[in-house]
Amino acid sequence: MHWSVAPLLLVALVGLPAIRAAPVCTALLPGNYQVMYTFDNSASDYANTGTTGSTNVGAVLGNPVFNATNAFQGRSVFLTTVGSGILLSGTLSLSVSSGFTLSLWFRNLKTQAALRTAFRGATDSQLAVQTSTVNLGFVIGTSTFNQYSSATLTGISADNKWHHLVVVGASSISHLLYVDGVLAGSYGRSSFVTQNLLAVGNHNSGSQAFADQID
Model-level pTM greater than 0.90? Predict the structure, then answer.
């Protein structure tokens, strides 16, 4: 990818979704976004931060592979095993009290009969897919799954296409989940505890890879 486009993981301190159906110029990103990972780097530089916001370089978890095969644009991350993911080098704080946005592209959900985790914080997973289903929700602790209304990946979990997921912490109201730019579900904010992000594409301890490819 070029540094001027962002079909990527985006972490922002705003309560509005960074919804887009195509790559977007960084000039259109929120001015106070915390970090932007292109996942388009060599083996010696796995992730880069955005031009503004905090510095939080990513590192590999397990055996992810970065290449251009079937990539959204440029390169993407292949989560080659159930233990593969991106582990942040430091705890990335989220402004839970004022709202935040987490954004990710994925291609083909992992099929193992276990939780599949897109975003993981210290105590909760902000977005995961339920064991043996394609329901989307969040996880309190290590096992308590809560579905975002009726949100699901039915019909798109293994269609060999790229899909866009956005989790919005909408300040004092609810957590909102968008799939390909459409509101897919919500959940009361009081249930959500974590105020940081530790891993992307997996649980920080591994074994819960989210998808075959992420970007």
Answer: no
